[in-house]
Amino acid sequence: MSTGDELKAAVSARRDLGPEFEDAIVESFLDKMGKEVDRRVDERLAQAAPKSVAHQGPSDAQRLALAIVSLSLGTLTTILFVLVGDGRAGYVIPIWVAIIIVNVLFNNRGKNG
For 86-98, how does the pLDDT look when each residue is reduced to its tens digit (9 = 90+)? Predict the structure, then answer.
């Protein structure tokens, strides 16, 4: 039964039963409408929910992008420190270690849980 039909039935019942049953009729109508709203919300949530929310990690495109950016920045930084010299080449190892850590953490996201 549609919402409009439910309302018509409630008004008709109110006419037939009289004002002494008005509260019960209104409560019944509101209860039915509340259940219908809940059903529709549940339906929409089920349609909108991603199929596998649990353990969802980075996509292949995200992994590739991070790898490319990491290697590019790491290589440029290494070249820069080697060319500039001045004893700064020692920074290269910590930079590469940080790049490795970031990549490992990023690629393990969603696997633990």
Answer: 777 777 888 889 8
